[in-house]
Design a protein that fits this description.
By secondary structure, the protein is α/β, with parallel strands linked by helices. It has 3 domains: 87 residues, Multidrug-efflux Transporter Regulator, Chain: A, Domain 2, CATH 1.10.1660.10; 74 residues, Methionine synthase domain (Methyltransferase, Methionine Synthase (B12-binding Domains), Chain A, domain 1); 125 residues, Cobalamin-binding domain (Rossmann fold, 3-Layer(aba) Sandwich). The protein is built from 13 helices and 10 strands. The strands form 3 sheets. A 5-stranded parallel beta sheet has the order 5-4-6-9-10, with helices on both faces. The chain has a 3-stranded antiparallel beta sheet with strand order 1-3-2. A two-stranded antiparallel sheet has the order 7-8. A hairpin with a 6-residue loop joins strand 7 and strand 8. The longest helix has 38 residues. The termini are far apart.
Length: 349
Amino acid sequence: MSRRDPDAAVPEAGVTTGFLARRLGVSPTTLRSWDRRYGLGPAHRADGRHRRWSPGDIAMVLEMCRLTAAGVPPAEAARTAKEHAGRHTAHTVPASVAGPPRGAVADVPARQAVARAARSGSGLPLGEVRQECKGLARAAVRLDAAAVRDQLTTAIRTHGLVVAWEEILAPTLRAVGRKWQSAGDRYVEVEHLLSWHISTALRHAYVSAAPARQASDTRAVPTVLLACLPGEQHTLPLDALSAVLAERGMPTLMLGSAVPAEALIAASQRVGPGAVVLWSQSRSTASLPLARHVAATQWGIRGARTHSRVLLSGPGWGRSQDPRLLRPHGLRDALRMLDALDGRTRPEG
């Protein structure tokens, strides 16, 4: 048959916009927009009509994706990408763009590495935030898992858990949530991808801190019990708090999402924690009667029984005020309260 195989090797003349868009998982409109706005397009035309992307043109697109994922503004990323491509023009089209040999399975991780190209921005309502937020948002919108993972690792290593959570991770998560609510579920996959990777990064930080914590812990420290209220599925803020406490050498017991009331009370009695942190994301899951019950629950030996201090964390509690309950506003505030309960003095941040 004379019909061309769509997976055949790319000719030296280059590939069409449609072919490149399909291989990278982006829309042809995105590629044309980059060409129109930043001059980031193919340099040659075939038969005076169809534009062809050469290996050098493709290198520019790949570099553009990498830079925007790192938080570089699109216009600046385009200038840098063109300079980079001019110095490192390849002689062949990258395998992830040219496609596999006939009958072979596509290299999915390689195509995910170049990811889905972003528009001029992330499309998320970020406002005035750190540059790292913008890069993380762009990578998440493109569903670029490798870039999301790398940026989370870099943010935590560079700024520490507290700053990374409050100024990079949490703002990006909130922006994704707002976009999802206003876009008719169009960004659900972005929220799931970002949440999973943030949870993985925070739990990795917790596990990494455990050996050092055990080696340096020479005294009995009251355990901090962390749990979500019944029906509450949002655990990421507690994951962040647990990881920071692990770094500080304070033992924690994480019960996770949607803990039944009976289980929460039983765990408090068995463990005897110095503090219990209860997370509620929405008013529908907040329960002051349950929180008061946990605060009133006594434990310890007869004649010297005591109780745990309870911290109401999360926006679901509103402006609840009760002298028996502590109401932290954010991660730093919770750390300050827990340090005070533990009798420690630590520098801010």
